[in-house]
Model the fold of this input.
Amino acid sequence: MSYVLDYNLREPSRQWSLLVLSINDRKQVRTMDIMHIQKIIRYFEYLRETQELAYSDFKYGTVSDELQQNLDTLVESGLLDDDEGKYCLTLEGEEAVQEVRKTFGNDQLKLLEFAKQQLNDLPIEELMYFLYKLIPSTQKNSIEYLRLEGKRDQLVCSLFRKGRINSTMAAQWLEISEKEFLDSLSD
Amino acid sequence: MLLEKCQLRTQLLRFGENNDLVAPNRISEEYAVGDSKTARPNLVTFREVFSPILVEENRELLRYFHFDNSSGEYWVIAHALKHPDYICVMDDYFGRNVCSYFNVKLTGTIGILKKMKERNMLTSDDLECIRQVVKNSRFYLSKDLLRELGQIT
Done:
């Protein structure tokens, strides 16, 4: 039996969904909710500079229907468990990941690990704001962006202190100089 | 900040006799900008202590910096990746995250001060000056540094 062939796991959104759920985040947590899966896969695609999934800019920012549909398929196939919105690998899913990892490049896996470790433990507002600012086109149609902009000092400062963005990026997002930003942290 | 305000030039030059202290050009540029309380940093002294080096771009690493090569940390890590014997000296949280991700050797300001103290290159007066400067600075890590400085005896 081949999981890759039987479940079409060469399809990027299936492959990445299984892989990302096999990675520990900073708090050694592997389970993920749908919002974190969507945003982390989008961040991964940003980092690798090649976009394979289709995304729409929706109320809560960038979302891929393709990814959602394939997650549903993986749940129906028994490779993933959906426990009240928290996704995790089943025992069969764990076996499938071992096979998928053999065909997945190390550099790509490293990027995916980085994406999960940088974002999976962030609260939803910080996660959304990070993506809105990193990929400004995702602000279109958002019902949340303007509200979050009202809290931008707090959100940027928190992302910086958690080491998810550097001072250069923080200053750009706040539209002030880096020196001003660093000084503001001690206020 | 500490180099000039606590006049650590001589001590760092001594430390540099057994350690190759280098700084990518971007770090010198950042140093030259100074902080809010140091109007005109002395770049000559900085370059005397830290040899300026040219570092090659590292396209793979650049991804992790969101394709922006303007931060000094990017150039420091790029150098360390090419020369694994070097240890990055970095306090910035994001830079430290990336270092640990690439298994680059890493220390911070406190790590260097500890080493210097162990080798008797810092006096109690030097440490007191460092404490005072950090205490009165607007450096965002002041509280963390002060706590750790308290552990150096």
Observations:
- Strands of chain B lie at 22-24, 51-53, 88-89, 106-107.
- The CA atoms of residues 36 and 138 of chain B lie 8 Å apart.
- The first strand of chain B starts at residue 22 and ends at 24.
